[in-house]
Amino acid sequence: METTVEKDGMDERRSSWVSHIGATIKASRARRFTVEELADRAKVSAGLISQIERGIGNPSFETLLRLSGALELPMAELFSAPPEGSPDDRVVRRDERRTIEVPREGIGMELLVPDVNRQLGVLIMKLPPNLEGSSIRSSHEGEECILVLEGSLVATIGDEKYSLEEGDTITFDAVIPHWWSNLSSKPARILAISTPPSQGRAH
Predict the structure, then answer these.
(1) Which of 136, 138, 153, 184 has the highest CB neighbour count under 10 A?
(2) Is 101 helix (H, G, I), strand (E, B) or coil?
(3) Distances in Å between the alpha carbon of 117 and those of 64, 67, 173, 197, 199?
């Protein structure tokens, strides 16, 4: 059974995450768009954007994709800030990975490169059981390769569906709208490599 202390800790982390997301989106929007203009570009309500920027609510992954696309802001920019005092910008220690979690969908991501200002994007995604991912499709410039580290998934690339098991890979033109579904009863983990790094545009 989940203890009160554990629940309080989860609530605190979620609140911190939402606050970070809101501040990042607001900073990217400032001097470029009003809330209403961004809402029109992203096809998201102005009220929801206002809530997110104030650090309240529980934005879905689809909402974040739409906002990042409208702002031309890489999704990876929404990752938590790197640890202070990092001695080397080449090495990312296992316990120092920049991470982001989307509680509403149960999706977790870990950035394996030091930052998003690279020619190569590399991250690990955790997909919860019974995830139907058509609402979190994305499309971006470049090429992408996916390796299934654990579990299984169905990769949808345009009109084609591919069933992938642990150890399988798929490589494709990332301009084609794509998404992942985990139809099993167990979590799945995938390694996603893209060049250039994904901009997270929603379609």
Answers:
(1) 153
(2) strand
(3) 20, 19, 21, 8, 12
Give per-residue pLDDT as tens, 126-141. Answer: 999 999 988 788 888 8
Q: Is the dihedral of CA 194, 196, 199, 203 positive or negative?
A: negative
Closest-CA residue to 152 (of 175, 131, 122): 131
Distances 116 to 2, 71, 75, 196 between C-alpha atoms, Å: 35, 16, 9, 10
Q: Where are the alpha helices (DSSP H) in the chain?
A: 4-29, 35-42, 46-53, 61-71
154 pairs with which residues across the strands? 163, 181
What pTM did the predictor assign?
0.71
Instruction: Supply φ then ψ for residue 16, to 5 degrees.
Output: -65, -40
